[in-house]
């Protein structure tokens, strides 16, 4: 009878009703097992919207701390990690057929992991969640935005942990192999935003006193190792930019950038010494930060591959100033149509 009621709630998309049903039936091993069977069946049948209903019902239950602790004691974390692992294969093969529900489900898992890890979750379970997120971030066959969000969720979880919890995670030997893979990916992923998040993960999970030793193991090039060790946690954003500029062989001493006829300027920060534009190969994105006079934060411009109708790249000779490299981009949305010019002085 429980299975029939659960099926009805899931089929009708009634997350709150499913949460009430589970609460009334009692949060027991049997209840969680039935829920696990329902989710496993749904994933195998591409019923991703159904799994989303289950996750949302669990979010409702987790609002009650006592019920959350009961579920964790019954093995909820292992179940959710298992469900998350189960969508890996569809994410690499069925994405075109089930794009929207599958992407929504992946995002829901990230949100739920973040919620779960903000509770008093045992460090051993925290470590398992982090490892799973790192593996998703490193998998080149997974949709790029999901990889980026996976490692950002990884870092957000670490940010919420206490100093003692972080220390225990740092000491977890299971993290060592994955950190080596993360370090290797920093050199090859081909996208600046992902490089930053991967570098942040390395810094968060490496005590300052051990960073030089670890970096020498991760990076065969001593110059890269030293550049990584120069990243200071207090100035992470600026120092990481310098590190990645070095890694990406970002050269040039005089650069200017224009959006149509408007010149763009680097953000006002005395710690920054140059303007940059990132051409991200892996994500197919051109992105850069600019000064935003009317705002407190830096302004950002992102030109995504799927939004581009056509583009041209050419060298423009100027008898007075030398050569300019001009990138012209026509976007799909008429209201956003614009031309971006990236200019380098020769």
Write a short abstract of this structure.
The protein is 56% helix and 14% strand.
If you had to describe this structure to a student in words, what would you say it looks like?
By secondary structure, the protein is of the alpha+beta class. It is built from 16 helices and 8 strands. The chain has helices at 2-11, 15-25, 29-44, 48-62, 65-74, 76-86, 88-93, 99-117, 123-138, 144-160, 163-171, 175-186, 192-204, 211-218, 222-229, 236-247; strands at 255-259, 262-264, 278-280, 285-290, 299-304, 308-318, 322-331, 340-344. A 3-stranded antiparallel β-sheet has the order 2-1-8, with no helix packed on it. Strands 3-4-5 form a 3-stranded antiparallel β-sheet, with no helix packed on it. Strand 6 and strand 7 form a beta hairpin. Helix 3 packs parallel to helix 6 (76-86). The longest helix has 19 residues, at 99-117. It is globular, with a radius of gyration of 24 Å.
Notable characteristics:
globular, 16 helices, alpha+beta, 346 residues, disordered C terminus, three-stranded antiparallel sheet
Write the layout of secondary structure elements.
Elements: H1 2-11, H2 15-25, H3 29-44, H4 48-62, H5 65-74, H6 76-86, H7 88-93, H8 99-117, H9 123-138, H10 144-160, H11 163-171, H12 175-186, H13 192-204, H14 211-218, H15 222-229, H16 236-247, E1 255-259, E2 262-264, E3 278-280, E4 285-290, E5 299-304, E6 308-318, E7 322-331, E8 340-344
Antiparallel strand pairs: 1-2, 1-8, 3-4, 4-5, 6-7
Helix pairs in contact: 1-2, 1-3, 2-4, 3-4, 3-6, 4-8, 6-9, 8-10, 9-10, 9-12, 10-13, 12-13, 13-16, 14-15
